[in-house]
Amino acid sequence: MKKIKRIIEDLLKEKKYFEIKKELDKLNAVEISDVINLFKLPELVIMIFRLLKKDKAADVFSYLDSEHQEMIIHASTDVETREIFDELYFDDIVDIIEEMPSDIVKKILKNTDRKDRHLINQLLKYPDNSAGSIMTTEYVDFQKNMTVQEAIGQLKKTGKDKENIYTCYVTDKNGKLEGVLSLKELISKKDSAAIEDIMNTNFVSVNTNDDQEKVADLFKKYDFIVMPVVDQENRILGIITVDDVLDVVDQEVTEDFHKMAGITSPTDDSYLKTSIFTMARQRIGWLAVLMISDTISGNIIQGYEKVLAKSIILTAFIPMLMSSGGNVGSQSSTVVIRSLALGEISPKDAFKVIKKEFSIGIMVSIVLAILNFIRLVTLEKTNFIIAFVVSLTLVFTVIVSKLVGALLPLGAKIVKADPAVMATPLITTISDAVTLIIYFNFATMFLKL
């Protein structure tokens, strides 16, 4: 894309606009948006966008980042704004409006008709991260008393304005969803066949207030490309398409990664566009909590000052033991959190998880302890008993950390908290304290200190 950007920049300097149009015509909408996103000067962004064909401009606009969308809307006339948003689907319009400042939102709403404004405002009122907030209202629906011929005729008239025509929905006269019908089934039946006789009444739907994460799970479970959204009375209000679910998955994964790293209130903005003050505020909370909690480890070490004074070499192995505990705990928590997210396990499987992680802990700890013992005795010429104490501590540290790493996310799930919060930072703090207690007790026992 950078190469194309340089070509366009050179053509702009020479005012060869026809050549620029030819270059843009070679690209699809996503590629053009990637190129435009590389330009920072508003006048150049607007000039390039206005060189696009009208039928492609709206597609390109939907893929631009919010900063460039704002530039274009701000510089567009009311007619140009109307032309852009007339070609966009409602879910895309809502996504754009949610990212825009109030003055731009007013301009967008001003240039949509009353019916569209009502639908947009309705979508905006749904809770954040709900099925209603990500659905689109452009779907194909038929009355159940229609014939196949009537349904196909309606589809020909309205289908071009719908986001998905491959799955059609069948309703009664009150709009209640009673069945679904694929386009393939529709065109394969006789013209005189009644829709209610060929529709499939075994379907899956979601409520407008259902969490978007639940929606994503259903898409994965059933391999859907589209799903209906209904209200409390089972009236269809919209559909969710797989492209919207991919955005949800990306958002949820990003959020979990941030929480696992101890970052609170993650934003949707990219790294470079997020202010340093926002980033500092996101990170400082957990860092402060963990800094204070780490005094526990310090207090444990102070409590065994006499032991360390008699055998100062014990100090050299503390970082290795603490690091090993934190690492194995993080491994367990990551696997358990992922399995919880995929629905592979639940809190009722706690005993199975404990049994599995305990078995893994034994196998891993014995291998690590043997390798560590050989290294200490042969390479570092460490005293045999000290090497034994360190290696024995490693066995218990790994097993305990494995169990802690597995149980904390399960515990969070039981109390309705986000399992991702119970991740690396908290596990490391607990593991460090347990490791030190085990280490110094073994040292006191075997070294007679």
UniProtKB/TrEMBL annotation:
**Which family is this protein grouped under?**
Belongs to the SLC41A transporter family.
Q: Where in the cell is it found?
A: Cell membrane; Membrane
Primary residence: membrane
- PROSITE patterns per record: CBS (PS51371)
The lineage, from the top, is: Bacteria, Fusobacteriati, Fusobacteriota, Fusobacteriia, Fusobacteriales
What's this protein's function? Acts as a magnesium transporter.
As for membrane topology, the entry says: Multi-pass membrane protein
What is the protein name stated in its UniProt record?
A: Magnesium transporter MgtE
Native organism is Leptotrichia rugosa
GO molecular function terms listed in the Swiss-Prot or TrEMBL record? magnesium ion transmembrane transporter activity; metal ion binding
Record-linked Pfam families = CBS, MgtE, MgtE_N
The reply on keyword Transport is: yes
Cellular component aspect of the GO annotation: plasma membrane
Q: Does the keyword Calcium apply?
A: no
Q: Which UniProt keywords apply?
A: CBS domain, Cell membrane, Magnesium, Membrane, Metal-binding, Transmembrane, Transmembrane helix, Transport
Subunit: Homodimer.
Q: Which Gene3D superfamilies match?
A: CBS-domain, MgtE N-terminal domain-like, SLC41 divalent cation transporters, integral membrane domain
